[in-house]
């Protein structure tokens, strides 16, 4: 009986492998080298999922700048050369972000497709709001809320806090109130955000809906989304109101789908800002006192001293003059940003790579644009945090083909091209305000001795979060 069952399983396995290989051969013919592993459907998901960045680096060494991996039933073409990445970013019609958004929106948030016109208008409004029109107001609000929160932290005696939780609380409550309005339900939003963010990669993955439902993943997601079902507060960002009306207009959209559609912005606003702030503060506190003093001097030169009441004036226009603070945030983003963004190849396309080879890319093929942030060719001593690296970086660098390319083609923590993160200025402003207030308010020390480890499994499209989630610090009011 056991032998028969074994033979049957072996036959099924061989049949699956034959089918699998047939599918692969179709893709292989003129396409980039294909790495598919030996397990049907799963492909190389296990080794890739353990440490995506290391796996990509290893495959790139073996197969060159462009290759295709097979992961959980999906072919993903990985592009590692920044010259090719820049070419892809600059052709948004052929290599589309919107279509990836729809795919992820459907997988992670079970959202229906919108017509292109409405969607383009919404994306345009988000970009306009976050990058120009609403940016000074958002920054000013974040400043007010952080300064208010800081009053509660004052302590004459040394006090210990978990940096990850502390920053998570501050950034979530400040960002949510700035974006969704001062009276939004930010406490509940924040409470449900963390479990959702923790599971985001798996919720957005290609595993079947039924499995996500059965294992409670969608419940975690919907707990976060429920907070976003009511109409945004009057003082929420303008683009949120437009987004709400557009989704409300979709026939048969359930209220939880509406909540999910609105919660995407909240998730995007928090996920990377929190981790980047933690890394920035951690690295800053690990610098020698002389470096911290140099940064503090810059803050005092640009912003002046605190008033008698303890407030620090941080005018919006002065934030761009904090070059040293900016350099520290930029270096944290370089070191800890994961893989990079994705695009969808919209039609069958012959891609002429910078190495002179031509590859046929299939229609609706997913592309992953890998980061060069750890490539020693572009960033000397790439695994080391060098606090003033970005004060000395030239505006252009020499690519591997000997041609000069802008630094912005190899340093891409906010993505690139038409869909470059619209929240980047706000995020940086918020982090800089935090740094200025911390350095001018407190004496601080990192207590945790070991270097915190990045949770490599989550290190794909995000700034790497921490594995253990605990960095203990000590602080007290500055003398
Ligand atoms: C350090 C913090 C942040 C990082 C590292 C980051 C990174 C990114 C990246 C890599 C993308 C994809 C871009 C591409 O593929 O070309 C993106 C998109 C986006 N981000 Fe951010 N982001 C941050 C903060 C924020 C904040 C604070 C907000 C909102 C307040 C925000 C809102 C968005 C939105 C709405 C998109 C989609 C843009 C579109 O549809 O065109 N992000 N972000």
Automatic annotation (TrEMBL):
Heme binds at residue 421. One of its GO terms (molecular function) is oxidoreductase activity, acting on paired donors, with incorporation or reduction of molecular oxygen. It comes from the Eukaryota. Keywords: Endoplasmic reticulum, Heme, Iron, Lipid metabolism, Membrane, Metal-binding, Oxidoreductase. Substrate binds at residues 107, 272. One of its GO terms (biological process) is cholesterol homeostasis. InterPro entries: CYP450_sterol_14alpha_dmase (IPR050529), Cyt_P450 (IPR001128), Cyt_P450_CYP7A1-type (IPR024204), Cyt_P450_E_grp-IV (IPR002403), Cyt_P450_sf (IPR036396). It holds the Pfam family p450. Coiled coil: none annotated. It is found in: Endoplasmic reticulum membrane. Its cofactor is heme. PANTHER family: CYTOCHROME P450, CYTOCHROME P450 FAMILY 7. This is 25/26-hydroxycholesterol 7alpha-hydroxylase. It comes from Acrasis kona.
């Amino acid at each position: 009986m056991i032998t028969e069952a074994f033979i049957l399983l072996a036959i099924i396995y061989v049949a699956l492998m034959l089918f699998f290989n047939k599918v692969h051969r179709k893709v292989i013919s003129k396409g980039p080298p294909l790495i598919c592993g030996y397990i049907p459907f799963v492909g190389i998901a296990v080794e890739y999922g353990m440490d995506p960045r290391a796996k990509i680096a290893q495959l790139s060494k073996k197969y060159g700048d462009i290759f295709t991996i097979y992961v959980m039933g999906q072919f993903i073409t990985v592009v590692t050369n920044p010259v090719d990445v820049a070419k892809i970013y600059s052709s948004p019609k052929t290599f589309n972000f919107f279509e990836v958004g729809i795919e992820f929106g459907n997988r992670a948030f079970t959202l229906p497709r919108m017509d292109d016109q409405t969607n383009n208008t919404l994306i345009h409004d988000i970009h306009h709001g976050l990058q120009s029109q609403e940016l000074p107001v958002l920054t000013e609000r974040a400043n007010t809320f952080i300064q208010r929160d800081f009053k509660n932290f004052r302590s004459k005696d040394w006090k210990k806090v978990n940096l990850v939780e502390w920053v998570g609380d501050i950034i979530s409550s400040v960002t949510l109130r700035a974006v969704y309005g001062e009276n939004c339900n930010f406490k509940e939003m924040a409470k449900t955000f963390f479990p959702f963010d923790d599971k985001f990669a798996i919720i957005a993955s290609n595993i079947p809906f039924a499995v996500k439902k059965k294992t409670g993943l969608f419940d975690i997601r919907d707990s976060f989304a429920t907070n976003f079902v009511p109409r945004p507060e009057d003082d929420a960002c303008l683009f949120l109101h437009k987004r709400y009306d557009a989704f409300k207009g979709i026939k048969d959209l359930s209220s939880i789908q509406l909540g999910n559609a609105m919660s995407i912005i909240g998730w995007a606003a928090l996920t990377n800002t929190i981790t980047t702030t933690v890394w920035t503060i951690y690295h800053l506190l690990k610098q020698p006192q002389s470096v911290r003093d140099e940064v503090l001097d810059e803050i005092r030169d640009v912003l002046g001293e605190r008033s008698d009441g303890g407030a620090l004036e941080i005018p919006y226009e002065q934030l761009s003059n904090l070059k040293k603070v900016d350099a520290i945030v930029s270096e944290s983003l370089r070191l800890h940003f994961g893989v990079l963004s994705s695009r969808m190849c919209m039609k069958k396309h012959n891609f002429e790579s910078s190495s002179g080879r031509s590859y046929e890319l299939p229609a609706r093929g997913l592309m992953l644009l890998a980061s060069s942030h750890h490539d020693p060719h572009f960033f000397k001593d790439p695994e080391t945090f060098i606090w003033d690296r970005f004060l000395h970086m030239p505006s252009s660098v020499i690519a591997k083909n000997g041609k000069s390319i802008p630094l912005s083609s190899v340093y891409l923590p906010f993505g690139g091209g038409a869909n470059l993160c619209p929240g980047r200025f706000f995020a940086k402003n918020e982090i800089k305000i935090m740094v200025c207030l911390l350095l001018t308010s407190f004496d601080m020390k990192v207590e945790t001795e070991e270097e915190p480890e990045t949770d490599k499994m989550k290190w794909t499209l995000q700034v790497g979060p921490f594995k253990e989630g605990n960095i203990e610090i000590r602080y007290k009011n500055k003398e």
